[in-house]
Structure formats: C-alpha cells, structure tokens
Design brief:
mainly alpha; 2 domains; 9 helices
Length: 171
C-alpha cells in the first residue's frame, strides 16, 4: 500500500522540479534573446525616420521622374526637424529609442518594397497609405518590435505608428 502512495508522490515531486527547470531555461533564453536584440538593433530613431522620409519622397516623385520632370527634395535638416517632432509625439514618446527605430525600420522596408516593385510609378497617396496599413508583413514586423518586452500591440495601435505626416505636409 505504501508503494502506491510513494510512486504518485515521487512523480509529483519530479514534475515540480521539472517545471522549475523549464521555467529557468525559458527565462535564460528570454534574457539572451532580449540582450541580443538590444545589442544588435541600431537605436538612431531620427536617422531611421529621415531615411523613411526620403523613401516616401522617392516614391512620390517616381511618376514625375519617369516623365523626365525634376522634383526637388526636402533637405535633411528639415526632415530631421520633422522627425524630432514626430518622435516626441504621443505615439512615440513612451517608446525606447530601440523600439522607435525598429518600428520606423519596418516602414522603411515597406517603402523600399513599393519602390522596387514599381508600385510608386502607378499608385496614389491614398493607395500607398492603404497598402501599408493592410500589409500583414509590415504589421508583423511592428509587432515583433515589441515582442521582446511581451508588449501586445493592437491593430489600432499599429495604425497609429505609421508615419504618414510627411506625405501630408509636403514641402
């Protein structure tokens, strides 16, 4: 009779110790992932934002350039000033520089895709914005920016993180 009680008790004890080991392993892997992400991610959000602005300008000027029309570009200092203001906005000011840079880099990649695919030559401002907002790759990229902090990002919040104000302001 004692053997029947001993075996279940032993299994429970082993299971408890096994859970602790798995929790420790997960915790160590999480810490390692977080550290590697922090070390390998550039954190110059303003430079990333200026790059994004240039990509947007390149896309919007593509139809004119294709027709041989020269389109002036906005100066880096003007773009940098706009970016500083954007990064101070309520959508970005609570984020780390690393998270800001990550979110903006996702958008740079999106605009690079628009440029390389030829979408910029035929699209409109409205279609560019819509394609960004509905692009699941971009949304996943932005979600991944917050995954190391276990931050959940709603679709509504993702939409607020897109930087389209440069399109609207013009020069």
């Amino acid at each position: 009779m004692k053997a029947y009680l001993l075996l279940p008790s032993l299994l429970i004890i082993l299971a408890l110790f096994g859970c602790d080991t798995k929790d420790d392993e997960f915790s160590k892997k999480y810490e390692t992932t977080l550290l590697l992400t922090y070390i390998s991610t550039p954190t110059d959000a303003n430079a990333a934002c200026v790059s994004l602005s240039k990509k947007q300008e390149e896309c919007f000027s593509a139809p004119a350039v294709a027709l041989g029309i020269s389109v002036p570009s906005t100066s880096d200092s003007t773009l940098s000033t706009r970016c500083v203001d954007t990064l101070k906005s309520s959508q970005f000011n609570q984020m780390s520089a690393m998270a800001q840079t990550c979110v903006i880099t996702c958008q740079v990649t999106d605009w690079n895709t628009k440029i390389s695919s030829g979408e910029c030559k035929t699209g409109t401002a409205s279609s560019f914005i819509q394609s960004s907002l509905t692009n699941t790759v971009v949304s996943k990229c932005i979600r991944d920016c917050f995954s190391t902090s276990n931050g959940l990002v709603t679709d509504e919040n993702i939409a607020k993180l897109f930087i389209f104000n440069f399109i609207q302001q013009g020069e």
